[in-house]
Amino acid sequence: MTTASRIKLAIAPIAWTNDDMPELGKENSFEQCISEMALAGFTGTEIGNKYPKDPDVLRPYLTLRHLEVASAWFSAFLTTQPFEETAGAFIKHRDFLHAMGAKVIVVSEQGHSIQGQDLPVFTKKPVFTEEEWQRLTEGLEKLGDLAAEKGMAIVYHHHMGTGVQTTAEIDRLMAETHPDKVSLLFDTGHLVFSGEDPLAIYQAHQKRIKHIHFKDIREDVAKEVVAEADSFLTGVRKGVFTVPGDGMIDFKPICEAIDASQYEGWVVVEAEQDPALANPLEYAIKARNYIKGTWAI
Question: Which interval of the chain is the signal sequence (predicted)?
Fold first, then answer.
């Protein structure tokens, strides 16, 4: 199979309206967002906070623009809440995504997360206890079973400011969960921001990777976040993330590794910036052109 037949390109709405800071992009409508996604040449979307949550309402909007739903974020609290609370919310989320035709469910553990708090993202990052690791891995496997009831898979999103961010933490999560129950989301931006080697992570876990996020890093801003002990959201406001081709990451060897692994699924451009400073359509087109020039898809 060719790359173009195995891989579909999506873009996340967080460039138009930020879910964590809804004041960023509050002026951008849902219809503008999905129309500009299609205009920029993408065929898929993840779900933002302005999207209708009724599949029968959402579907016609996307069909008119030839867009599919790639996935959507789910916040788990397996380390801090009874499993039943996470499971109830997960089933509702799963059923919505299944109705929209998605095959994977993005899951990130938000127990003890500081990604939304005004705390230094590096020095105050949570570290799970042994008991919390056990609750996390057992809980994720149960969520994997729930996803499998609908023929779906969970893909774990390693993330800045959470208990699964570093190479060692990703390696442990993969080692302590069953590959048939828990898969991995590969996010270039979070890995490089954290100081990890994205190519090494991809090669180590390629058989578990079922969803990919492409985002780039502005190196000068990343260094400033460390030097100024900034929070994650302050880093976003300052512009630490950008689209592929606009930052420090060399995507060519990453694309070659993805090709070599015969990955099938979505690659989602996700670059949260202040849309007042980084016009979403302009940056979506920039990302699409860069990927086309680098990867020929």
Answer: none
